[in-house]
Amino acid sequence: MRVLGLLLLMLPAAGYATGICEDTGTTYGAPTLFSEALEAFAVPATLAWCEERQDEGSIDEVRGTIAYTELRDVRGNVLGALSAVTGDDAKRLEEEVGVFEAVPAAQLATALAAHGFAPIVARGPTKNRCTIKGAWKATPGQQDNGFPAAELAVEVRAGKRRLLRREVGVVAEARRGDEVIVAHVRATQRKIALFTLRPTCSGPPPGYFGPDDGGSCYQIDDVQVTLLDASAGPLARCFAK
């Protein structure tokens, strides 16, 4: 099984790249569906691809993007993907994610529902509903691959009381605001499935081409999925009546 997609967009060569076909990879969006059966999030993803084309002695870039949906469980395993792509894009996606489930775009929602995916439950059923949000900590001189950076953590709070703080990692300041924190409350098990996206940069950092160069951030998304046990300890307060 493998996930969603449709998009072939031809783009000109990127002017900020230092070589042919740089700045490619997979970026992720915020999941809105969770499957209790698979214990997994359905994560929207976009694969950027690039190919070299030679024309009359010159080498040009041909770029495109492929949208798909990745199924990632609470242990961080990628279970598969679904996609509507065909032809060359299907081959490109298969090279990246392996065999995927081909689903026409109009039938994607039905296919996901068949795998048990339903809207994420963001809040518990009891009065002591906890909030889950990001917390930033900046350290002078901290860097992410040569880019100014700060540290991101996830905090679980009940009112003003902090029940849990979990470090996510270093995030490039240039991508501050691209972070994603999504929690799905599994009330019957008293567990919280937590999805986080840590946005980072690669590519030529600030100053690479001189003192006035601000750098070129090639987006790298680090996805983390974990399961928080709220049956005991401080997090049990989230389900207390």
Number of helices: 2
Structural class: mainly beta
Helix content: under 10%
- Major β-sheet annotation: 7 strands, mixed
The whole-number mean of residue pLDDT values reads: 86
Q: How many domains comprise the coordinates?
A: 2
Got a strand count? 14
Give the DSSP E fraction (strand runs of 2 or more residues): over 45%
Unreliable segments of 5+ consecutive residues: 1-17
| Overall 3D shape | flat
List SSEs in N-to-C order: EEEEEHEHEEEEEEEE
Span of the ends, CA to CA? 40 Å
Radius of gyration: 20 Å
In short:
The protein is built from two helices and 14 strands. The chain has helices at 87-97, 108-114; strands spanning 25-28, 33-35, 40-55, 58-73, 78-83, 101-102, 117-119, 131-137, 143-144, 147-158, 161-172, 180-186, 191-202, 218-229. Strand 4 and strand 5 form a beta hairpin.
